[in-house]
Amino acid sequence: xxxxxKFLRTLSAILVALIALLAAGPTAWAKxxxxxxxxxxxxxxxxxxxxxxxxxxxxxxVADAKGFNAALAKQGQKGAxxxxxxxxxxxxxxxxRVRKAAAAAKVDAxxxxxxxxxxxxxxxxxxxxxxxxxxxxxxxEIALPAxx
Length: 148
Known about the structure:
Layout: H1 4-23, H2 26-31, E1 34-41, H3 45-55, E2 60-63, H4 66-74, H5 82-86, H6 88-104, E3 109-118, E4 121-129, E5 138-145
């Protein structure tokens, strides 16, 4: 398993940021629930994605990522985001594509989870992207021990 305490503390901080981000748009709240897409990649990414989705509070709908992924492909991002996240120039372009895809898919926020295997453990990178802002809503990195 992973360091549950460290992961849950970071997850809680991310969810607080996500709720604050989504609460900032009063017109969308008037229309109903907010919609979030979780995009995860890397080893065990599905496990982390499920944990994040399970922790999302009521009033926030976790949408299927198919529509968002199709919109992301139309923006030119096909395949894994890993290489684009590693470079500073490509990273900015990636987040711009994510914002445009989120707007096209009518998603209020995108949570990107990237799991990277390292020599002595794993690293989980989490990004919260708001399609209405040019800055990331949240960016965190969690170092976890190797899977037992």
